[in-house]
Amino acid sequence: LLLGCELTASTKSYTFQVDEEDDSDHILALSVVCLTDGAKDECNVVEVVGRNHENQEIAVPVANLKLSCQPLLSLDNFKLQPPVTFRLAAGSGPVHLAGWHRIMHREDASFEGDNDFSEEDEEELPPIMPAKK
Question: Which of 45, 110, 115, 118 is deepest in the core (most CB within 10 A)?
Answer without folding.
Answer: 45
